[in-house]
Specification:
By secondary structure, the chain is mostly helical. The chain is built from ten helices and four strands, in the order E-H-H-H-H-E-E-H-H-H-E-H-H-H.
């Protein structure tokens, strides 16, 4: 019998604000959900990173090339010693990563386009593996977990909530009558406060959090895109779930991440 995954929220916040790069805590939380799904369903993604990219990384690092320089070479130079290895690794798992040279021909740097956050996560992971053998041996992938600093839009004074009532005069009203009156006023004040705060956050650039998600949506995305499985193959292991549900679920997960799903099944690896 198929187990239904309980829906959860990506974060506890009701609204989110973004940093100058367009990131917020909800997007980074969705990316981490995807990384964990890949770890569960397509561990070969990280096993191949360790097998094909780590030996070269270790040789560079042991040769006194620091992590910052290795990262700069990968992210800025088409012919960096680690760049072609990571490009090949990315292609194995249908990752959209392309290199483009700037229009000014004299500039040696290039720009990556596509899922650059995964490439950056790979570099952080290689660094952690090189520093700590236990993390490498356990295939620890916490290097893919992003953190983001976003501007605050609400001050302490903004979010103060004050409710007052004149109190109960037992000579004029019954306890039950006064209690119901106060509860009604309090609920109305809460509703007004919620609307006021929501409008203020939106006015200052915030956005409403998305609807809850299911972990299995990220599992399906991982299997389809990184595992190269078809919808029929995913359905065979998903129990009583139709292909339309699977497709909608993984596209919902991709939207949360801001991820571009491959359009068709590629040749078997």
């Amino acid at each position: 019998m198929r187990t239904v995954t309980r829906k959860r929220r990506l974060t506890t916040a009701e609204f989110h604000t973004t940093n100058p790069e367009g990131l917020d805590n909800e997007i980074t939380a969705a990316r981490w959900e995807l990384v964990q799904a890949i770890r569960r369903k397509v561990p070969a993604f990280f096993e191949r990173l360790r097998a094909v990219a780590y030996p070269k990384y270790a040789r560079l690092a042991n040769g006194s090339v620091d992590h910052g320089e290795i990262g700069y070479q990968v992210l800025s130079h088409a012919n960096g010693p680690l760049t072609p290895i990571l490009k090949k690794w990315a292609r194995e798992f249908n990752l959209l990563l392309t290199l483009k040279r700037p229009t000014a021909a004299h500039l040696p740097v290039v720009q990556w386009h596509g899922e650059v956050w995964i490439l950056e996560g790979a570099l952080r992971t290689l660094l952690l593996w090189h520093r700590y053998d236990a993390l490498k041996n356990d295939l620890d992938v916490k290097g893919f977990r992003q953190s983001v600093c976003v501007p605050g839009v609400i001050t302490g004074r903004d979010h103060q909530f004050v409710f007052k009532d004149g109190g109960w005069d037992p000579t004029l009203r019954s306890w039950e009558g006064w209690r119901l009156h106060v509860q009604q006023r309090f609920e109305e004040a809460l509703e007004d406060y919620q609307k006021k705060m929501g409008a203020l956050v939106v006015k200052r650039g915030g956005r409403k959090s998305v609807t809850p998600f299911s972990t299995e949506h990220f599992d399906w995305l991982a299997l389809y895109h990184f595992g190269n499985l078809s919808l029929d193959q995913i359905r065979a292991g998903a129990g009583n779930v139709d292909k339309t549900t699977i497709s909608k679920g993984m596209h919902h997960a991709a939207d949360l991440v801001g991820f571009t799903i491959r359009k068709k099944k590629l040749k078997s690896r």
